[in-house]
Design a protein that fits this description.
Layout (H helix, E strand, L loop, with lengths): L1 H5 L7 H14 L28 H10 L14 H21 L12 H13 L9 H10 L14 H9 L1
Amino acid sequence: MVSEVQYGGRITDDLDRELFQKYADLWYSDAIFQPNYSFNSMFTEFNYQIPEVNEHSKFLEYIQQMPGKDSPIIFGLHPNADLTFRKNESLDMINTLVDTMPKDSAGGSGLSKEDEVKEKLKKELIPMMPEDFKTLVVRETIDKMKGPRGISVLGLNVPLNVVLSQEI
């Protein structure tokens, strides 16, 4: 249920789904109920295991001891996998920043790129913005709105109207 329903629905690649299923098979087995079961048999900076405590505060203490960044070793990966991941993540961020920068324009307006972007916003995008909602008018309108057929309540007593109100 965990691998296929709770998380699996978010995984779109078949190979990623298969890998996640393997992790679930490894981590969600009857072995986890054995005393001192460890989720990773290789030596890492932290021993991931289910603590043998009964108090909520002790569980929280154990969770606070967990590292902020997991080692790739616990996932069965080479330690360089983290380096490669971070390098690719940095390159993606830099490429995104470069792609979103204003491009050189053919016109010689004498404006800086930042001023050109501001000018474009002012001339093209801001006029397209709708008027601000008038809170009292919106509230009065929603208070008069009916629900589906057969329901006699009005306004914020109708779940769909609550959603509408929250979206506005």
